[in-house]
Amino acid sequence: MIDSMRKIKQLFSNTSVDVYFDSTFNHLSKLVDKKNAVIITDENIFSLHGSKFRNWNVITLKPGEAFKIQLTADAIIEQLIGFEADRSTTLIGVGGGVVTDLTGYVASIYMRGIRFGFVPTSLLAMVDASIGGKNGVDVGAYKNLVGSIRQPSFLLYDYSFLKTLPNIEWSNGFAEIIKHACILDHSSFKLLINNNLQSIKKDKKILTSIIEKNVVLKSSVVKKDEFEKGDRKLLNFGHTLGHALETQYELTHGQAVALGMVFAAGLSEQILGLKKSVEIIQVLSQYTLPTIASFDAERVFNILTMDKKRVSDKMNFVLLKKIGKGVVHPIKLDTLHKYVSAYSHLNKASK
Ligand code: NAD
Ligand code: ZN
Fold it and tell me: Are strands 16-21 and 6-11 parallel, antiparallel or unpaired?
């Protein structure tokens, strides 16, 4: 059924992206010539949705972040040669952020760049990873160290993929949705706080409106700053402390970012007078994300200050002026140290 499909166009500096909301996988064959296209997906998606891929050329990857590496890109390139892919071939990434990041990357370098599009299948890929044109691979401990910025030609949303998404991946996606609401849109925040993970999963209308709103929100930030010189930094809300925690503890990305957002909200309250920061804690818990954790403040602070966003004795941090309005704010390292230490103690005390 494609009756209800909605198409929008997002314009970036060098290109436009056709976005097909509420579409179906079958509609892909109208966008590309099956014989001259190669789908890249992962084993989980292939085993759950295999029938959809009939008669397509498919490359199936091992799932997971551990495979978002150059070795996998090389293996994809070998298989593309096997499929006799040339400059006129379209690559289609059907999967979560790992698949879309790899697909965009390989499409940017194969024969110096070929056409590509995405069918995001995880909530996180739908609202975040497939939007903005960033792609790439990890190198050792360095996430996304190698890659390029290049927009896909199209994004196709088939919400039926979400039926098989594991719970943990739902909350990972909601961490980024809550982030977008905090930095950009108070009305989305209100919608989130008036619902919860279970109620939204059951209500396709609200779910699709949230996904579509988030595509527009993220695209609006990217359009203002496609090559990451300013505004795009707002998207790092919760991610500075989040990344430091993620490298040190067994946390998913969404869980680490949730803890980072709680920290940044507390900081915003103290430094910028943010009101109702407690609502951020409330909303995170409604989407089964953690809000307290005890951690080694010294170790985490050391990792945090090795972060690339540091400028001399200050560090740029994304704070909230109010819910729905993020700002980049320089913070002195000794002040930050004090807050990190207080936050880790606070969490120990409340455990
Ligand atoms: P992922 O691709 O690893 O997917 C998470 C898990 O869900 C995987 O096991 C996958 O097989 C499974 N999965 C995906 N869709 C499914 C479905 N419909 N049914 C059942 N299982 C399904 O990771 P992710 O969380 O989607 O994305 C994280 C990645 O995205 C990271 O590598 C991150 O760096 C990247 N990312 C990129 C950007 C960007 O701007 N390019 C932004 C945010 C995140
Ligand atoms: Zn993130």
Answer: antiparallel
Active site residue 112: yes
2 pLDDT band (50/70/90 cuts)? very low
Does 216 have pLDDT greater than 70?
A: yes
C-alpha 314/C-alpha 61 separation (Å) is: 42
Answer yes or no: are the C-beta atoms of 244 and 303 closer than 8 Å. Answer: yes
Distance CA 80, CA 67 (A): 18
202 is catalytic: no
Spell out which residues line ligand 1, taking CB within 6 angstroms. Answer: 42, 44-45, 48, 63-65, 68, 95-99, 101, 121-122, 124-125, 128-129, 132, 134-135, 143-144, 161-162, 164-165, 169, 172
Predicted confidence (pLDDT) per residue in 97-119, tens digit: 999 999 999 999 999 999 999 99
Q: Is the overall model pTM greater than 0.90, yes or no? A: yes
Which atom of ligand 1 approaches the CA of 254 most closely? Answer: 25
Cβ atoms of 52 and 40 closer than 8 Å: no
Which residue among 112, 163, 205, 351 is the active-site one? 112
What is the distance in A from the centroid of ligand 2 to the CA of 15?
A: 25
Strands 37-42 and 57-61: parallel
Query: Which of 131, 143, 169 has the most ligand 1 atoms within 8 A of CB, as the residue to mutate?
Result: 169
Nearest to 286 by CA among 192, 204, 207, 351: 192
Separation in Å, CA 336 to CA 203, 265, 318: 41, 13, 13
What is the percent of the chain where pLDDT is above 90? 84
| Distinct helix (H) and strand (E) counts, the chain | 14, 12
Q: Which of 212, 134, 224 is nearest to 177 (CA)?
A: 212
Question: Could you give the CA distance from residue 237 to residue 245 in angstroms, rounded to a whole number?
Answer: 14
Query: Is 236 tagged catalytic?
Result: yes
